[in-house]
Write a structure and sequence with these properties.
Helix content: under 10%
Structural class: mainly beta
Order of helices and strands: EEEEEEEEEEE
Largest sheet: 7 strands, mixed
Number of strands: 11
Distance between the termini: 37 Å
Strand content: over 45%
Number of helices: 0
Radius of gyration: 13 Å
Shape: globular
């Protein structure tokens, strides 16, 4: 069964300083009336809200990723992205997208030195 919000790949490994772009695609709907959210959760830690696009277009970032991560969506408002630059080992976590009440399956991002 195709998920309503599909985050695609289950895991990815990169090295410190690399860039990575995560995406989540809506199946059967669009984001035009929804806020978009990216979260992450590292082992033993609480889930952290990283980036938001509100329904009015306002964008916000957590202080831990501001300046390094960028949230966006495509013109069709069916795919959301998280561009992550200058990755650090502490960015290792499971990353989740959320939109319109739906959650992506999550992508494990591992950053190694």
């Amino acid at each position: 069964q195709v998920p309503l919000l599909d985050s695609g790949r289950g895991s990815v490994s990169v090295q410190v300083g690399w860039s990575l772009k995560l995406s989540c695609a809506a199946n059967g709907y669009d984001f035009s009336r929804c806020g978009l959210y990216w979260y992450r959760q590292a082992p033993g830690k609480e889930r952290e809200l990283l980036a938001t696009i509100r329904s009015d277009g306002t964008i916000n970032y957590s202080n831990t990723v501001k300046g390094r991560f960028t949230i966006s969506q495509d013109n069709a408002k069916t795919t959301m992205y998280l561009q992550m630059n200058s990755l650090k080992t502490e960015d290792t976590a499971m990353y989740y997208c959320q939109a319109c009440g739906e959650w992506g399956q999550g992508t494990q991002v591992t950053v190694s030195s």
